[in-house]
Here is the input.
Amino acid sequence: MTEFPGLIWACELDGNGGATALDFEEFERPIPSGHSRWLHLDCREEATECWLRGHSGLDDLTCEALLAKEIRPRSLILAGGMVATLRGVNLNEGEDPENMTSIRVWFDADHIITLRGQRVMAVQDIRDSLEKGEGPDSPGAFLPTLILQLIERMGPVMGGLDDEVDELEDLVVSAQTFELRTRLGEVRRQAIALRRYLAPQRDVVARLQSERVTWLSDLDRARLREAADRLTRHVEDLDASRERAAVTQEELAGRLAEQMNRTMYVLSLVAAVFLPLGLLTGLLGINVGGMPGTDSNVAFAVVCALLVLLAVLGVWLFRRMRFF
Here is the structure.
């Protein structure tokens, strides 16, 4: 391909599920009947912004939507095209899934332009399917395919989150430790971070299926409805996981508090048993005249026996009063 810093790839969809790689300049040439073209760019490159603003033919509002630094899922119908900004779980090496990657899409009846920062695995899945001749056959089919691939990639992450909550619910019964509190807090944080973008993305997909544009066929709208339903289930699963983690965290906090109270109760009883012993030894330890037993060889043995007797008496008394 011709050297262009922001280009990831460009291809021409043949209308039958396949695609042919293009040079960058070929993207703007006349399109054969029944074909469409896809340009995938890196939005972090300065050359991408320069091309979009100066040579793509897109208006300023579209360019701003595609190049925004911080984006939330949304869709926008503009003259001759549609802009959609979407989010997917971050499956790049060394990244947390909840630090979601973004994909920005502009398309009309014949063109698709996508921009991304970090690598989006769902986009790579579409490219692989095109190479096999099993990809989307038009820009209208591309959008639901992309959304469904993003949702497909979310599945293992959602399942892992649910499994983590199940494991913690089991462990809280037998392992009331502060480590579990940390893990529960992490699960809640991850669920909240994922829901922050999935909830508005669900609304975007639900709205897209009702947009009055000619390049979305009835099949494309049906697939968008399916995507909206699956996103709704994911959002509901996140809500359930977050609530279960909160309830489990409260249960763990209650068990830890009960364990702490029990420990403090035992320590209080021990202190109560030894309190008179400490008082007696303190009195016998003062260095003043007139202390009894200072000249007796058996005084120490008598005091020790008295201390043992007092300890046994204290334990008996507490048991009789049903303190333990």
User: Anything to note?
Assistant: The chain has a mean pLDDT of 85. Strands lie at 7-13, 19-21, 36-42, 74-78, 81-88, 101-107, 111-116. The chain has one domain: 7-254.
